[in-house]
Amino acid sequence: MYTLKQKNWKISENEITSENLFNKRRDFLKLGAAALVSSSVVAEKLAAVESVKRASLDFKKTLYGKDLELNSFDQASTYNNFYEFSLKKDAPAKLAHTLKPNPWDIEIHGEVQKPMHISLDDIVSSYPLEERIYRFRCVEGWSMVVPWIGVTLAHLIKKAKPTSKAKYVKFTTMLDPEMFPDQKRGLFGNIPYPYVEGLRIDEAMNDLTFMAVGMYGKILPNQNGAPIRLVVPWKYGFKSIKSIVSIELVEKEPLNTWKLINAREYGFYANVNPEVDHPRWSQAKERKLGSFFKNKTMMFNGYEEEVGHMYKNMDLRKYI
Ligand SMILES: Nc1nc2c(c(=O)[nH]1)N[C@H]1C(S)=C(S)[C@@H](COP(=O)(O)O)O[C@H]1N2
Ligand SMILES: [Mo]
């Protein structure tokens, strides 16, 4: 079993870094690395970009979130939770150049008729990518609005043909201490690795549940979970697991990292809910990155119409 040091998980009300020179350096490094990878769609796209910019993606715009006011790319890419790099919000943007998102392979397996491996290239080249603007709410009380680019998780899962025993989905982040410095620290690390998460199968198949490969028109910056991460907009941000290598269909409710660390404070469901406070802080309000005032937290983060039916007969005070 893991012995865990007591940490100060609570948010420090950090300000947002506006301009970030490290981004430019990181993109430059990434372009260098990409040139070494042969004949891959993503690598070609990267190589085709002359200036120090992230590769653009082809995608279609959708109506999701069209009336929401976006946060800036700088805000979303310099204020991150990615414990594989650091506990500090501004650190992943500076450290994440060690993540090598290409080539990348995701395994879809477990209770499926057609276990499969898909590469990031497969996703980028064989699926129509869409852009969806979603609200995103961290359990710590900050929120943002981000234009993600990707495919629905249902799209990927259906390909593998789940069996009738597939009741939950378990996700796993890459385990590679060369890419993620905190994974080198073993029991002294910030959290146990690899980071794992889970969804119930109906949640996983819900139309809102998204696998993002990009944001703001381009491939994901490493610090936001490159090359592919989950986005579950009605749940607290920790459910939206980054840099995924395994999607496993399972029969029993899988453990998730935060519940494993502290089951009293973090549950499996983690639905955004203004009425159910975190044991150490209220969830009634939130502060959008870059804004001075707090707003009221919305039930299911504003997605009640789309997802409320899945929790009709559940006591949401019990199933936190
Ligand atoms: N592998 C991994 N995934 C992760 C985390 C992490 O530390 N490691 N942090 C989670 C938390 S707490 C949040 S709020 C979001 C933050 O996503 P962002 O940095 O893109 O805003 O990622 C989630 N996914
Ligand atoms: Mo979070």
Sequence of secondary-structure elements: HHEHHEEHEEHEEHEEEEHEEH
Low-confidence segments, given as residue ranges, are 1-38
The CATH first-level class comes to: Alpha Beta
Largest sheet: 8 strands, mixed
Which fold name is given in CATH as the topology? Sulfite Oxidase, Chain A, domain 2
Strand content: 15-25%
Number of strands: 13
CATH architecture: Alpha-Beta Complex
- How many angstroms separate the termini? 24 Å
Q: Which structural class fits the helix and strand makeup?
A: alpha+beta
Summarize the amount of helix as a percent range: 10-25%
How many domains, as an integer? Answer: 1
- Mean pLDDT over all positions: 88
Name the overall outline. Answer: globular
Query: Cofactors and ligands present?
Result: the ligand Nc1nc2c(c(=O)[nH]1)N[C@H]1C(S)=C(S)[C@@H](COP(=O)(O)O)O[C@H]1N2, molybdenum atom
CATH superfamily: Oxidoreductase, molybdopterin-binding domain
Radius of gyration: 19 Å
| Count of alpha and pi helical runs | 9
Overview of the molecule:
- The structure is a single chain.
- The protein has about 325 residues and is an alpha+beta fold.
- The protein has one domain: Sulfite Oxidase, Chain A, domain 2 (Alpha-Beta Complex), CATH 3.90.420.
- Helices cover about 20% and strands about 20% of the residues.
- The chain contains nine helices and 13 strands.
- It has helices at about 20-35, 40-50, 75-80, 90-95, 120-125, 155-160, 200-205, 255-260, 305; strands spanning about 60, 105-110, 115-120, 130-135, 140-150, 170-175, 195-200, 210-215, 220, 230, 245-250, 285-290, 295.
- Strands 1, 4, 5, 8, 9, 10, 12 and 13 form an eight-stranded mixed β-sheet that branches. The chain has a five-stranded mixed β-sheet with strand order 3-2-11-6-7.
- Strand 8 and strand 9 form a beta hairpin.
- It is globular.
- The chain starts with 20 loop residues before the first helix and ends in a 13-residue tail after the last helix.
- The model is unreliable at about 1-40 (pLDDT under 50).
- The structure holds ligand MTE and molybdenum atom.
- The ligand Nc1nc2c(c(=O)[nH]1)N[C@H]1C(S)=C(S)[C@@H](COP(=O)(O)O)O[C@H]1N2 binds near residues 80 and 224.
